[in-house]
Every structure is written in C-alpha cells, then in structure tokens.
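Notes to self after the Tuesday call (sharing in case useful).
The group wants a holo model before anyone commits to mutagenesis around the pocket. I volunteered. Ligand is G3I. Logging inputs and output together so the record is complete.
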Amino acid sequence: GQLNTLAKAKGLKYFGSATDNSELSDTTYVDILKNTSNFGQITPGNTQKWMYVEPSEGTFDFTQGDVITSFAEGNGQMLRCHNLVWYNELPSWVTSGTWTNATLISALKTHIQGEVTHYKGQCYCWDVVNEALNDDGTWRSDVFYNTIGTEYVPIAFETAALYDPNVKLYYNDYNIEYSGAKATAAQNIVKSLQARGIKIDGVGLQGHFIVGETPTLSAQTSNLESFTALGVEVAYTEVDIRFTSLPPSTSGYTQQATDYVNTVSACLATTDCVGITLWDFTDKYSWIPSTFSGQGDACLWNADFSTKPAYTSVISLLGGA
Ligand code: G3I
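Result:
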C-alpha cells in the first residue's frame, strides 16, 4: 500500500498533492502523481487563482486551470479547488482598480459566479476565502477588507453557495494549526457565518511547518477538535515541513519524520479530519526555496524522486510496510 490507499483504509477521504501546469511535462513526476495508490486528490497550486482565471474584468480564461482539473478527472482523483478570494495572485485590475464598496462587491460576485459555475460538479470543495487573517488574529489589510470590510467574507461564501449548492465551502489559512489568536479568529469566522445561516463546510489548515517547530500531536489534535466542535470538517491542505538551514543532518531527518507523523496522526485522530494534501510531494517543485532563501527539503520526496525518512515513517504510521 501507498499513501492514499493506506490513508483511505484508515478512514480518510484522500491523501493528495498540489501540482502546477509546468510540472506535468515531467514524466517521472507525473508517474508518481497520477498513481491513485499514492494520491487520491489534486489541488491546482496556482492556475485557478484570480490572475489566471479572470485576467481582465469580466473576461474568464480557464485554459490552464482546466489542464489540472482534466488531469485529476482523467485519473479518478478528487479536486480541492483553490481559490476564489485571496489577497495574492490578483490581477492588477483588482489591486489597482478604483473601487467603491458597491463596485468591488459586484466584481467579487462576478468572479465567484464565473469560476464556480465553470467548475460546478468537478470540485470536492472550494477554498472560498484564503488567508484573510494576520498572525495576531486581526484582519489582513487587502483590497477586499479595505474596501468592503469584513462583509466580503459572507458575500463570498453566499455567492459560492448560490452557484454550486453541492460543493463544500472552506476557509483556508496557515498558522491556525495550533491554538492561539489566529486559530480563534478563524473559528470566529466559522461562527459568524453559521450565526447568519451562511454555508461553510470546512476549514483548511495549510500546515506549512518548520522541522522541530511543528506543533505536537496533542496540540494539533486538540486544535483540530476545536474546529470540528463547531460542526465543520477540517483538512490539512498544504503540508510541507521545511528545514531552515541546509543540508539537513541525520537527526534533522529523524525530527522531520516525527513532525510529519504527528501531523498525519492528528488528522487520523480527529473525526471529521477528511484528508491531507502535500504542497507538492517533491522538493523539485516546492515553493519554499524561492520564498525562503536557503531553506527547503520540506517534501516527502527528494528532488531526485527518492523518498525521505519521513515518507517511510508516514507509510509505517498508516500501516504500510
Ligand atoms: O508562471 C510564471 C513563469 O512564467 C515566470 O517565468 C516565473 C518567474 O517568476 O513566475 C511564474 O509564476 C510563479 C508561479 O508561482 C508559478 O510557478 C510566480 O512568480 C510565483 O509567485 C508563484 O508562487 C506561488 C505562490 O503561491 C504565490 O504566492 C507558488 O507556486 C504556490 O505554491 C503558492 O501557494 C500558496 C497557496 O496558494 C496559499 N498558501 C501559501 C502557498 C505558498 O505560498
């Protein structure tokens, strides 16, 4: 057995990976990605984001996003669709537009309508709103918050539900994998939507961790349960566990394996933790080195497609050999 088959046998809906269009010409990579015993779920790492999908106002282009969704569907893999509203990877007409409350609400609704309608029936879930919070739990200052205020969040969820009543709707963020101001603020987003009868089905905890600083199993489990206690499902949506200095030592790889095992264990231990997605499975295509210079080796597969000790430990945790 491999990651996905074993994870499903343990009660998860999927074990998955992000991918991106440029990676799909790499045959060694694709052979691993498309194998549903490894991965039962795909997240498009970039090309469903606003700048790709609606590069100019009212003009939609799903060409690149469709490459990934067709790949997943062709292989019988579930899709986490990512994302509808995010401060990053916005086209300049959004970031530099002259907006009023009313005109930006209209543009937001048009965007969500267009994208959700196009992918209707294809996605297991949508990350409706991504990373709306600062690490201290306050609202991130971005064009949506600064123009519309906090109402952009309920508007986004209501609009997504209107155009695909069956897809699960998620709030997705990082640094909410342990208790604290940011996790509490994310729980308050869930509660405030629920209080108004607006559909929210899940919270995505990204899981971009650092080796040796990953929250403990009990910290992660109790945190997941504080979300599921609200009646939403949870998932680890973008897992990678990076070294802050390279190359790793032997004991570093052992610590990384412990950190991965704790994260996977926390999901297994939580009723309503539905799955785990790697933010790509190989260091060859990890986002980390280009964002955090000198850091990396965060993935279960090395850049040469050999597997790390953490891979072996996760397989073993899942009951494989
Ligand atoms: O496609 C262009 C290419 O044509 C160009 O030559 C090259 C030069 O810089 O850029 C390429 O685009 C890059 C794109 O990734 C595809 O590789 C962008 O510059 C780069 O900014 C973009 O980074 C993505 C990042 O989101 C944007 O902030 C990462 O791949 C993607 O993994 C990352 O994913 C995010 C999640 O969506 C949300 N959570 C955090 C996570 C990590 O930052």
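Two things stood out.
The mean pLDDT is 98.
The first helix runs from residue 3 to 9.
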